[in-house]
Specification:
The protein is α+β, with helices and mostly antiparallel strands. It has two domains: 157 residues, Immunoglobulin-like; 34 residues. It contains one helix and 13 strands, in the order βββββββββββββα. Strands 4, 6, 7, 9, 10, 11 and 13 form a seven-stranded antiparallel sheet that branches. The chain is globular, with a radius of gyration of 24 Å.
């Protein structure tokens, strides 16, 4: 997860989890996955907090959520029970466009509280070893309670993902690395023996 700029009015973050969170409001973000699930689905949750100097809460939050289509195709878009007014989010292939929703109460997601706006369900392909997701500015306006729209320049957008080194390495790759290591050791042994024979001859 990237760190937000300290003067951001809103902070938007995504988190990869094995199962959807049971609460839409919490004081800390959930712990993210450290590796891709084997053959099962995972969930990319969209969380938001009102972190600026004026904290009245978030009434609407919208992003474009970019996902690796070749690795995690056909996401299922879902919205939280909290931000269930004007829900939106259309899968355009590699992006869930205008993903988010609204609610009308004040003091929701005032820092340090986080509110879950929605989430998507994706199932990684068997060959997938890494996955990255990014929240980007949407055309739909995000807004604060009693303050109206918040410019995208005053919103900190986060990314989340699992790098290749944390993914499951296929067995064929492990055998390939082992075979390569054996070849290197064998070649080194042959060279050393050759040098010893040459010295003996002298």
């Amino acid at each position: 997860m990237v760190q937000g700029q300290p003067d951001a009015d809103f902070k938007f973050r995504c988190v990869l989890v094995e199962a959807p969170s049971t609460m839409d409001r919490r004081m800390e973000l959930p712990d993210g996955l450290l590796q891709l699930p084997a053959g099962g689905p995972m969930y990319v949750e969209f969380w938001a907090t009102d972190s600026g100097t004026t904290n009245t809460g978030i009434t609407c939050a919208f992003v474009d959520l970019e996902y690796p289509e070749s690795c995690t195709p056909m996401p299922m878009v879902m919205h939280s029970s909290l931000f269930n007014l004007f829900p939106s989010g259309a899968d355009n292939g590699s992006t869930v466009d205008e993903f988010g929703g609204c609610q009308l109460a004040g003091d929701v997601a005032v820092e340090p509280e986080w509110a879950r706006i929605g989430y998507i369900q994706v199932t990684p392909e068997a060959s997938c070893q890494a996955a990255s997701f990014a929240l980007r500015p949407a055309s739909s306006v995000s807004s604060g309670f009693g303050r109206g729209g918040i410019p995208t320049t005053e919103i900190s957008y986060g990314t989340c993902g699992i790098p290749a080194e944390n993914g499951t390495v296929p067995a064929t790759s492990e055998w390939g690395l082992t075979a390569f290591a054996l070849c290197v050791l064998t070649a080194g042994t042959i060279v050393l023996r050759g040098r010893r024979v040459a010295r003996s001859a002298h």
